[in-house]
Specification:
Length: 325
């Protein structure tokens, strides 16, 4: 499908929408990977997208799409060691890993949503497992009125013994080749990847070369959390996430890193790959910065954990106000 490099926030998609845009401010509707989003702001894969009731709350909110938590075959959740916390009310740190629920749970949940907006199905696993899940998602996609995208999570920093694949470019090239070994996804399914934070030129150019070389990718989400963060609780004189200690950092603290990744990747990737910005989207201004850096849409995580699903209406109202001015 046609990919919008920048959201069509200044243009209404229809005459009906033009009336709404006039009353409420600029339209935030956009098209990403051929999927029509009523707003360019939606949730990332995170703990508040785990169960059906979470997804239903997101569906009923002002979010432009509904993204699931990452499903990974064989992943075992440990409640005692896998935690998340917000040390300052603005940022988050977590050592959670993937969803405790399987892929089949989410393919059963998505048909129960309203169908008024697209769904983003987050997955991870071996290349063979991910390839099989992509094929199952392709069979599901035509039954979802809002459309379906699959996001392959290459970037979780919290899996022991398994560093993020997005940093190993030779392995990443082989992995994507195996995922799509059975052929390209059908036009009804958009497939993309979620990347790690990159920090220097060779990482950007290495990643872009691999992603540009895979003709079946429709989008890239940048970024996941910044790994190996540590927050020490002064009152207990111990790591906040003890006993696991280290975790991925998200929220306003990673916003500038996320913007750098969005802008660099947008400049290096072919135009048919949309870039979705994720990192520190806690206000209309933060969302606008991502859009200015070339994001087609933006995802919210830490602010959702702090504020609940009402965050989408607030961020969107602020974003409309900035654009109207």
């Amino acid at each position: 499908g046609t990919v919008s490099i920048r959201p069509s926030v200044y243009m209404a998609a229809s005459s009906d929408n033009a009336v709404n845009a006039s009353a409420e401010g600029p339209s935030l509707r956009t098209v990403v990977c051929g999927l029509s989003l009523p707003s360019c702001v939606f949730n990332s894969s995170n703990p508040f997208a785990t169960a059906l009731e979470d997804l239903q709350a997101l569906d009923a909110s002002a979010a432009g799409a509904v993204a699931t938590r990452t499903a990974c075959p064989g992943f075992v959740h440990d409640e005692a060691t896998m935690k998340w916390a917000s040390p300052d009310g603005a940022n988050t740190i977590n050592c959670l890993g993937y969803s405790p629920l399987p892929f089949e749970y989410y393919t059963g949940c998505l048909p129960q949503l309203s169908g008024a907006k697209p769904c983003w199905l987050s997955i991870s696993g071996s290349a063979e497992e991910v390839g099989a899940m992509v094929r199952e998602a392709a069979a599901l996609a035509p039954s979802l009125p809002g459309g379906l995208a699959v996001e392959i999570n290459l970037s979780c920093p919290n899996i022991a013994g398994k560093p993020p694949l997005a940093y190993d470019f030779d392995a990443l090239r082989d992995y994507l080749g195996t995922v799509f070994d059975a052929g390209p996804p059908p036009p009804t399914l958009a497939v993309g990847v979620k990347t790690t934070p990159y920090f220097y030129d060779a990482q950007y150019t290495g990643a872009a070369a691999v992603l540009n070389g895979c003709p079946h990718l429709s989008f890239v989400t940048a970024i996941n959390t910044v790994g190996n963060g540590l927050y020490v609780d002064v009152a207990t004189e111990a790591p906040l996430l003890a006993p696991s200690c280290y975790g991925g950092l998200g929220g306003a603290a990673v916003h500038a890193i996320a913007l750098g990744n969005v802008r660099r990747l947008r400049a290096l990737l072919r135009p048919s790959i949309a870039v979705i910005g994720c990192g520190g989207v806690d206000s209309g201004e933060a969302a606008f910065r991502h859009l200015l850096c070339g994001a087609s849409a933006v995802m919210v995580a830490s602010a959702l954990l702090h504020e609940g699903v009402g965050v989408f209406a607030r961020v969107e109202a602020e974003l409309r106000g900035i654009m109207a001015s």
